[in-house]
Structures are given as C-alpha cells and as structure tokens.
Amino acid sequence: MTTRTAAVSLGRGNSPPPVGVVDIGSNSVRLVVFDGVRRASLPLFNEKVLCGLGAGIQSSGRLNPDGVTLALETLSRFTGLAKAMRVQELELLATAAVRDAEDGDEFVQAAEASTGYRVRVLTGEEESRLAAQGVLSGRPESTGVIGDLGGGSLELVELEEGRPGRWASLHLGPLRLMDAVEDNLKAAKRLIDEQLAALPWLESARGGDFHAVGGAWRALAQIQMQQNRYPLHMVQGYAVERGEAEQIAGLIARMGPKSLRKLADVPERRAETLPYAGLLLARILKRFRPQRVVFSSRGLREGWLFSRLPEVEQQRDPLLVAARDWAAVDGRFGDLGEEIERWARPLFPREQAAERRLRLAACHLSDVGWRYHPDYRAEQILLRILRAQELYVEHPDRAFLGLALYHRYGGEKNKKTLKVPLSLLSSRRARDAEVLGRSLRMAYLLSGGAPEMLQRSRLELNGKGLLLHIPFDPPIPTGSTIKKRLKSLANSMKLAETKIVVEDHKDQPRAHPSTQKV
C-alpha cells in the first residue's frame, strides 16, 4: 500500500504543495500539515487527540483497547481532513507503543484498512534520528543531548556542534512507568536510574544543553512559565538554567494529578503522567548536568519534514531563510537585508558572529511592517516578532529582533510597551537593538528603498562623532529630517557629534554646514 497523493494542491503560484504527517504515539495521535517541503516551513494545521494507546502495555504487552478504538476513529478523521485540505502527501508514523505491542501488527493492518494509507512503524533508531533532526532543523549548531519523551519511550541523542552521535531508545515513557511501578515513585526512580546508568556517554557529553522535546515536558515548561509570570507564552526557544529546571522538575514529581490540575490548566490524562515526566527530567539532569534546559516544540514531525529536504537546503540557516522569505512576501522593495547590513556594519565593530547573524536577520525584516498604520507600526511589528512561530530563536534573541524593529519604526520608549523585550535583554543588548533600529530607520530615509543609494553613502565612527558620507555629484539631499535622524542615531550610541561629509568626484571630502554637536 502506498501513500496517497491528492490531485490538487493548496499551494499558490510557486509555493510548494502542502504535506502532512500523522504521529501515532503512545499517548497521543497528532496530525500536522506543513506548507510544503521547505527550509522554513510553517504548520497550516496542527491537532492532537490523547488516545492513550500505550496505557497498560508494560503489564499486558498489548495496546489499550479503548485507545485502539479512539486512535482508529482519530486516524479516519485525520486522513479525511488531509484529503479535504488537498494535502499532496501524507505519511503515518507509529512509534514505541505500536512498535512494542504484541498486537501492534493487528493495529497497523486495521489502520491501513480503514484509512487506505500505509502506516510506517519506526524503529528506535529511526525515532531517535528524526527527533534529533527536528531539533537541529531549528537549532543547527546545538551541542549537548536531545531528549524526546513520548508516552512509551524516551529517545536520547548526543549532539556535537550540530552532529548527532550516540543514541538510545529507553522504555521510560510516563505511561510505561505508571504501569511498571503502580504509583511508587521510589520504584520509578530506581528504574530510571538503572537505565540511565547503562549510558556512560551521558556523563561524557556534559557541557552542553539538554534539549527537552515532547508534550509532557512542554506542559512542565508551561507550568513554570505560569508560576514565574514569564512574559512570553511559547515553549519553543524557552531556556532555563539547570538549577531552575531541577527545582520545577522535582516539584512536579512530588505532586499528584489533583494538585497539578489546580496549579495549571492541565488536561486529565496529562496530569496523571506529569509527575513521571518531572521525575525523568530531574534524574536526567542529575546525571547529565547540562548548562541549561532548552525546551523545543520541534521534534519527530519536524524531523520527518527536514529529512525530506536536499542536503544543500538542510545546511541553510533557518532564521535567515525565514527572514528572507518574510521580506520577499511583505517588503515593499524586495529583500534589502544584505545591503542594509553592509551599510550599518561600521556601527558594530566588536560584534560576535552570533550577534551579526541576529543583526542580519533584523535587516532582512526591516521593512515588513509597512502595511500597518504609521501610528501603530512600531507596536504592531514588536508584537508580531515576539509571537512569530517561523523565527527559530531563543527568547532573548526574539526580544532583540522585536526591539530593533520597534525602534526602526520610531517607537517611543514606553515602559509598558517595552516591558516584555526589556525583561529578556541585558542593558547592553537593549542599547544595541536601539542603535540597530535607528540605523535601519536612517537607511530607509536616506535610500528610499533603492540599494544604489545605500551603496553611494556610508557611515563612519570617528572618535566621539558619527559621520555620514554622501556623494557630491549627483548629491543625496540632506534635509532636516536626515539631520534629525542622524542625531537620534548618535544619541543612542552616546556620541557627542554628528557630521555630514560631502565627497566630490575626486573622493575628497568637503565640509558641510550640517556639522553639529549632539
């Protein structure tokens, strides 16, 4: 049986047709439809149903009968939705519960018969590899360990600067643990420690981050965000120091379902498994001792999509690809990112490579807010950047981009509006964002969106002053607005003087009456 292909695509113009994946997990069944096989793809549709296929599998060896009924109903609905949405290609992937159950083959046959789609049962190695690719698709240079927690298994993968290494697939999913220890957390702790002790490479991988993937760990992160009144309500890119993660994991491990439901808006089935997810995280952190825990909403499903890309596409930077794609669609003048980055570069002589990458992304995004009313552009683009799911960055980097574009559109220093980004940034990075934003604002005023105008002018830092070099023939007009914005840019850099230098055809600078002190 082969995967069905729809005759008509939802894609418009040159857009790739949508593709979808159904993740048949031990706890949930989820359908995700992506807007094509592309480097910076977006989910068009994302829905899950908690079926509990793996409940009781540890003791019975078989899939949960009620879970089977619900899963088959869900699969019929999901495949019907995919056909109605004209998804070109849909793949059904089954993981630990179906892989390990005595009646797993029977379930696969029933699912294929009722849906007409082939069900691919992943091995532990395949599941680990796809989970790693999902994380790396958003964070290409990651080092440390990935942990993908499903209901029936835990996949661990070592990472070294973006390269997957040793891996393990352990029978440590919360549903299995609940069944194996019958609410005895001490027994669960011993079982977890025994299996982790068989992985000496966990200790040798110390020094990097632990990338936590899976619905149970995402729920744990959301509880911590709620308790800390964290300003952003998104798990992707949320990072905490090890000590803080150990504290919340230990707290969740000691709580019962009833207490968890009072603590946060946690579904009934998730509340039952969360203590085991917390215990698992606490024991992993004790053995691995990472610098941080970075939570990821990208895992197996995104890894499946990433694996379908040509290698040359896999190597592209996901942040910069997303920023360029966004600029190509919403920018008035196309993508001027590279030209503006070069033009503004003299203002940032000591920036690190990671800082330059963020600055380049901001330059690509520097004109995407023009459709908003001028009085609301700054605030609207800040909110858009803070909430945009296509930007694969950690939260402080997201705040930097949002703050830079806020200043690019002339936003005022309103403490209430800027509360979120400023709470996530150091004072130095907040100032860098302001400098960048004001330089972007200057660039568009000076050039009108024409690249050649940027190529004919340049900025220079000279002692305590900021110089703007412009050509004499033909001249770039230097009206009062340009002088005002040059002064504003210098102010943000704490520079005492500004000067506009007009250069004649012999490249000799000529004095200009606009020289002034700030």
How would you sum up this structure in a few lines?
The protein is an alpha/beta fold and 518 residues long.
Describe the protein in words.
- By secondary structure, the chain is an alpha/beta fold.
- It contains 23 helices and 16 strands.
- The strands form 3 sheets. It has a 6-stranded mixed sheet, with helices on both faces.
- Strand 1 (19-24) and strand 2 form a beta hairpin.
- Mean pLDDT is 89; it is low at 1-13 and 509-518.
What tags apply to this protein structure?
518 residues, alpha/beta, 6-stranded mixed beta sheet, 17% strand, elongated
Blueprint (SSEs and pairs):
Blueprint: E1 19-24, E2 28-34, E3 43-50, H1 57-60, H2 65-84, E4 89-94, H3 96-100, H4 104-115, E5 119-121, H5 124-138, E6 144-149, E7 154-160, E8 163-170, H6 174-181, H7 185-197, H8 201-204, E9 209-213, H9 215-228, E10 238-241, H10 242-253, H11 257-263, H12 268-288, E11 292-296, H13 300-307, H14 311-314, H15 318-330, H16 337-344, H17 353-364, H18 377-387, H19 395-408, H20 419-424, H21 427-447, H22 451-455, E12 458-462, E13 465-471, H23 480-492, E14 497-503, E15 509-510, E16 516-517
Parallel strand pairs: 1-4, 4-5, 6-9, 9-11, 13-14
Antiparallel strand pairs: 1-2, 2-3, 6-7, 7-8, 10-11, 12-13, 14-15, 14-16
Helix pairs in contact: 2-4, 5-13, 6-7, 6-12, 7-12, 9-12, 10-12, 11-12, 15-17, 16-17, 17-19, 18-19, 19-21, 21-23
